Amino acid sequence: MESGRLSSTEKALIRESWQKVSSNLLQHGIVLFTRLFDLDPDLLPLFQYNCRQFSSPLECLSSPEFLDHIRKVMLVIDAAVTHLENLSSLEEYLTNLGKKHQAVGVKVDSFSAVGESLLFMLEKCLSTAFSSDVREAWTKLYGAVVKAMSRGWDARKEGE
Ligand code: HEM
User: Fold this and answer.
1) In this protein, which residues make up the domain named Globin (predicted)?
2) Cα 157 from chain centroid?
3) Residue 121 burial by CB count (10 A; 0-12/13-18/19+): exposed, middle or buried?
4) Using CA positions, which residue lies closest to atom 15 of ligand 1?
């Protein structure tokens, strides 16, 4: 996976900024997904547990299964931060994760709203420490994660 584009300064900025987020992953994940449903309410029906559909983002955000999904997302980002020096070791996992998302009806395009929501959450968490350099570094890292996940959609098409 493309990690060469992240300079050592950018990696340091990512690690430093993630420290504050990782002190409470769930709390910050809730900020991320609240923003995501604001940006794209049509994503709500994709989350169904025991065939039950949520009638509002608030209802979704208070379900234990959905909170588990938030934790899962935050742990994947945490893994990317931990593996900044060796992002390619996550490539296969992320491609498979992409396949799973394709199977549940997620479109690759929806990941841009997730990226915006990630930056929104980081800005809320870091306040003035969220500099344009920090934003740029996170945009690159998130781009690498999405690139690897999006191979899951390509791989499916090839396998059909
Ligand atoms: C458009 C946004 C997204 C939607 C609609 C979505 C939807 C889903 C759904 C419906 C599931 C299966 C049920 C569940 O495990 O809760 C799932 C699983 C999962 N999602 Fe997402 N997801 C999104 C974004 C992400 C992102 C950005 C990540 C990580 C970077 C992620 C990580 C995971 C993980 C780790 C699982 C569990 C996969 C497994 O069972 O092995 N999701 N997602």
Assistant:
1) 5-154
2) 23
3) buried
4) 69
State how far Cα 22 lies from the chain centre.
Answer: 14
158 pLDDT more than 70: no
Give the model confidence (pLDDT) of 147-157 as tens digits.
Answer: 999 999 976 55
Question: What residues form DSSP beta bridges with 49?
Answer: 52
Q: Name the CATH topology of 8-159.
A: Globin-like (1.10.490)
C-alpha torsion sign, points 5, 9, 12, 16 = negative
pLDDT tens for residues 64-120?
A: 999 999 999 999 999 999 999 999 999 999 999 999 999 999 999 999 999 999 999
Task: Please tell me the distance between residue 69's alpha carbon and the centre of ligand 1 in angstroms.
Answer: 6
Query: How many angstroms separate the alpha carbon of residue 71 from the centre of ligand 1?
Result: 10
